[in-house]
Request: fold
Amino acid sequence: MGYATSEKSIPNILGIAHDGNHLFQCPKNSTITCIVKPLRMLRKILHLSTSLGLELVIARVIKAIPWLNAFLLKNGWSDKNDKNSHLIYDNIKKYFSAAEISLGGKKILEIGSGRAYSLGALFISQSHAKSFLASDPFNKHYDGEQPPVDAHGITFEKIDFTNVHDIQKYEKTFDVVLSTAVLEHIHRDVCEQLVKNMNHVLAPGGYAFHQIDFKDHFNGKHLPFNFYKYSNTQWEAATRNTIFYTNRLRYSDWKHFFQNNGFQIINLHKYHKENPTFPKKIASDFRSYGRDDLEVRAMDILVQKVSSR
Reply:
C-alpha cells in the first residue's frame, strides 16, 4: 500500500534480534543473496516499461526464467516490514475501536504475513490478544529453519487459505481474520472460495478486516489503472503465477463476496485516486463497472460473521 515508515520501536517479545527492516533480507547461506538489492532496480525498470507499454513483455520474460520467477514469488518486495507495522496496526485498530470491538483475549489470524512478525507483537502487547497466527503460503520467515513458536502466543505457519484441505483443522478457531494488501494477489477464480474459507475458520460472531490494494502493481503510483486496457485473457496469460499478478477485482466484487457468504459489513472505506487517468481504450471486461468502482484505488473493509457457509 505504500505506507510511510515509522521509527517507533517494535516490541521484541519473540526475543529475535532485528534491524527494523526485513524488506530485503535473504536467508543465510543463500546462493542468491547478491540478487536482493537489484530488486529495487527491477522496480524502476518496471515503472519505465509501463510508460512504454512493455509491462506484459517484461512479465512474460521473467515468467520464462523459472528460478528468477520462483525467487521473486518467494521473496517479493512487500513493504510489510517492521518499520511500518505500527501504521498498519494503528489503521486496523482504528476500525475496531470505532465499532467498539475489543481485541483483548481474541485469537487472531493474519493471512499473507510475509516476513515481519512485528504486527503480531503489537496485537499481543498493545491489544492483549490471546494469540496471533501469522500464515503465508510461502514459508518466508526463516528458510531452512523451524519457524519460531513463542510462549507469548505468536506462531508462524505455512498455510494456503484458498485450499479447503489446508484450513479444515481450523474450523471455528479464530475470533479475527485480517490481511493487508494480500487479497488482490489471490487468483480471481478462487477469491470467493477464500471468503468462504474465512467464514469456516471464524468462530460465530467473529470478525474479518482486510485492506485491499486495487492499483496496477507495475506502476501504481503514477499509472494505477493502466491495466484496464488489457483483457482478462491477456492479463492472466502474462502475469498469473508471477509477482506482478493482481486479480483486478474491484471493490464491488469483494463487497458481493462477503455479503453473499455469511458476513455483514460493519465498515467499508474506499480510497479514491484524485483526477485518475484511464487508458484511452478500456477492455470490455471492465465496461460493466461504474466509474465510481473503477476509480477506487484501495479499500478497508470490516465485516462480521453472521451465519456459517
Remarks:
- The chain is about 30% helix and 20% strand.
- The chain has two domains: 28-77+232-245, 79-214+249-305.
